């Protein structure tokens, strides 16, 4: 009986691990503060630097409709806070944007002077999650920030629960 239980545990762990590899992550932009004007102009830059983004992940922008929005733009529009080549606009909050291709993706709030005051975000998207850090070319600053900590995937917790249940 113990051998069967152990076999079921290992098979479920392998299955859950494989499921975990294909699941995309949802990133709530700005964490608990959401998508809003921050007192620190580099807040979103620091937030992104602590995360890894891969193709298939989703950015969730939590904001109040009419107070903020999200526009995805080119690098030159991002740098100048202009809208000459808008890729996509989201005027209703919350907005969820799927990261569909590798490389840098540029977002900002186009309401008033929000972009100029720092409500802007660039994320470096990798093709897979093998990278260990976000690489934000030309947009990283040295500065603190807190570590997101080590997160335990739900698949690992499920495997543990299954194993405990079997015993």
Detailed description of the structure:
The structure is a single chain. With 167 residues, this protein is an alpha/beta fold. The protein has a single domain (24-141), classed as Cupredoxins -  blue copper proteins (Immunoglobulin-like, Sandwich), CATH 2.60.40. It is 28% helix and 21% strand. The protein has four helices and eight strands, in the order H-E-H-E-E-E-H-E-E-E-E-H. The protein has helices spanning 2-22, 43-49, 75-80, 154-166, and strands at 26-28, 53-54, 58-61, 70-73, 86-90, 95-98, 103-108, 120-126. Strands 2-8-7-4-5 form a five-stranded mixed β-sheet. Strands 1-3-6 form a three-stranded mixed β-sheet, with no helix packed on it. Helix 1 (2-22) packs antiparallel against helix 4 (154-166). The longest helix has 21 residues, at 2-22. It is globular, with a radius of gyration of 19 Å.
What is the fold's blueprint, element by element?
Blueprint: H1 2-22, E1 26-28, H2 43-49, E2 53-54, E3 58-61, E4 70-73, H3 75-80, E5 86-90, E6 95-98, E7 103-108, E8 120-126, H4 154-166
Parallel strand pairs: 1-3, 2-8
Antiparallel strand pairs: 3-6, 4-5, 4-7, 7-8
Helix pairs in contact: 1-4
């Amino acid at each position: 009986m113990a051998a069967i239980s152990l076999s079921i545990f290992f098979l479920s762990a392998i299955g859950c691990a494989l499921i975990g590899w294909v699941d995309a992550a949802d990133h709530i932009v700005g964490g608990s503060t959401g998508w809003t004007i921050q007192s620190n102009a580099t807040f979103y830059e620091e937030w992104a630097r602590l995360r890894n983004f891969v193709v298939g992940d989703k950015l969730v922008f939590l904001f109040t409709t009419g107070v903020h929005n999200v526009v995805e733009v080119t690098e030159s529009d991002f740098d100048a806070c202009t809208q000459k080549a808008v890729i996509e606009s989201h005027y209703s909050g919350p907005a969820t944007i799927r990261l569909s291709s590798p490389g840098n993706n540029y977002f900002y709030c186009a309401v008033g002077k929000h972009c100029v005051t720092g409500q802007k975000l660039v994320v470096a998207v990798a093709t897979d999650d093998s990278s260990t850090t976000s690489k934000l070319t030309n947009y990283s600053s040295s500065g603190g920030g807190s570590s997101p900590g080590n997160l335990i995937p739900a698949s690992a917790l499920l495997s543990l629960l299954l194993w405990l249940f079997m015993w």
